[in-house]
Design a protein that fits this description.
Shape: elongated
Radius of gyration: 27 Å
Helix content: under 10%
Distance between the termini: 75 Å
Mean pLDDT: 90
Length: 463
């Protein structure tokens, strides 16, 4: 920590603008500003009890670097700063009643913040600095901005902190981050009708677009204000990287990324990493011949699913698919299979439940049906896949080609958690050879990815 700022420097800091004009900061002046506080310490005070406000009544000054910009309209009266230009450890959202602040506090600008009279608290789930009004943080009045925020002449290059979506956590909020090897969901980039950033009919305040990983990492949401200059631009189709501010959505339901400019989304190639898909469509009716069936009623509660030819494989983590029984708002269907990493301590959980081998050459009109329920997905997800070249050996599971059965509906995070939802009758008649059907769960014990997926009434039929 740097030595205490002399009182005279604070007087100079608080007097950067003329008394009769507080509309904007004065010209940059390189004063010998010294700091006696740092951003990690401010956040430390906040995280001791995030529900309360901490108000500063002493002469405390910290330095920070601006990592947001309102030039393109995706930020409005909020300026995000972090403690260092490279390898940052702390960031905070400053609420200020000042539009077009980018003209004075531009991206990469080193600033000093006089904390006296300001408060830190939580706004929409993230740490924010502003003025206390009751038990809320409100914007610093424009007339007071120059008393609290002093810009230096130093503008530096900001190096985004490279992270993965599986690493999202409160400690990374308000940092300028970069996520590599990602792309927008393919349904958002259909060449005939690509989606916009935030100009669709259902975009009320923000456009929320699903970004998927090319490396098997978790998907995440990119948010864009409907007032952003680039709201009506079409989403890029390729894969690449995204740089922006990690924060929470307005309702504090999930992590999201806000970019400063569309150029921070570098999907520079038309090459995509979409998984291979098998799609025979939906069948009109279930066949009379049952090739495989399980409602898990013969399984033992809270024990790994076994028997009936199931292969229960843990690829990552420590939790297998288990049988369980529950009543209440999210009751099981008698006894069901579920995957739940909560309490495991696993940074990542990836578990497979695979049917016995199905012969698609000696049958016709094959179809699959099942039911799923989320009991709160919490950012985790489940897929149903098929492979006709896996040899059934666990060690070779990643050497085989697994295609997504895209016609199957799987319960989503926005489906009511207590409902059991049918997959539909998934047609498998276009598949040749012998194959395995797999239900694959991806999640972790992180707070926002430790969702529960449940499976029941699995039936594979034929004519």
């Amino acid at each position: 920590m740097k030595k205490i700022l002399p009182f005279l420097s604070l007087i100079i800091l608080a007097s950067c603008a003329p008394e009769d004009d507080h509309s904007a900061p004065e010209e940059t002046r390189d004063l010998a500003v010294e700091t006696n506080m740092d951003l990690p310490a401010v956040l430390g005070l906040h995280f001791q009890n995030p529900e309360r406000l901490v108000t500063f009544d002493k002469d405390l000054v910290l330095e920070a670097y601006v990592v947001s910009s309102d030039e393109a309209g995706n930020f409005y009266k909020e300026m995000v700063v972090q403690d260092k230009p490279h390898n940052p450890t702390a960031g905070i959202n400053i609420k200020l009643n000042m539009a077009s602040y980018y003209q004075f506090f531009n991206f990469g600008r080193k600033i000093h913040i006089n904390l006296k009279g300001l408060s830190v608290g939580q706004v929409n789930g993230v740490a924010a600095l502003g003025v206390a009004e009751g038990n809320q943080i409100v914007n610093i009045p424009q007339s007071s901005v120059s008393h609290h925020i002093y810009r230096s002449s130093e503008v530096v290059e900001i190096t985004p902190k490279i992270i993965q979506a599986s690493e999202f956590n409160d400690g990374l909020e308000n940092l300028f981050v970069k996520i590599n090897d990602v792309q927008f969901n393919k349904l958002l980039t259909i060449p005939e009708k690509p989606a916009t950033y935030a100009a669709e009919e259902n975009d009320e305040f923000d456009g929320e677009r699903l970004v998927e990983s090319c490396t098997g990492d978790f998907p995440f949401i990119l948010s864009t204000s409907t007032y952003a200059d680039f709201a009506a631009l079409k989403l890029p189709m390729g894969s690449g990287n995204v740089s922006g501010i990690l924060t929470r959505d307005f309702y504090d339901e999930f992590y999201t990324i806000y970019v400063n400019y569309p150029g921070d989304i570098e999907l520079s190639t038309n090459l995509r990493c979409d998984p291979k898909v098998t799609d025979c469509g939906l069948a009109s009716q279930i066949g009379d011949k049952i090739l495989f069936e399980d409602d898990f009623s013969s399984q033992k509660n809270n024990k790994p699913v076994e028997g009936k030819g199931w292969k229960n494989i843990i690829q990552e983590g420590s939790r297998p698919w288990e049988a369980y029984t529950a009543k209440g708002a999210n009751a099981s269907l008698g006894r069901s299979a579920r995957m739940r990493p909560s309490g495991s301590g696993d940074a990542r959980s990836l578990s497979w439940l695979i049917t016995p081998k199905i012969n698609f050459d000696t049958n016709s009109g094959e179809a699959l049906s099942f039911k799923t329920s989320t009991s709160l997905a919490n950012g985790s997800f489940m897929e149903v896949l098929i492979s006709t070249d896996w040899d059934g050996v666990e060690e070779n599971i990643l050497k085989a080609e697994w295609n997504i059965l895209s016609a199957a509906y799987i319960a989503q995070s926005n489906d009511f958690f207590g409902d059991w939802i049918s997959s539909g009758l998934v047609d498998l008649s276009c598949i040749a050879g012998k194959g395995y059907i797999a239900f694959r769960y991806t999640g972790s014990d992180h707070t926002y990815y430790n969702g529960v997926y449940e499976l029941d009434d699995v039936i594979v039929s034929a004519d």
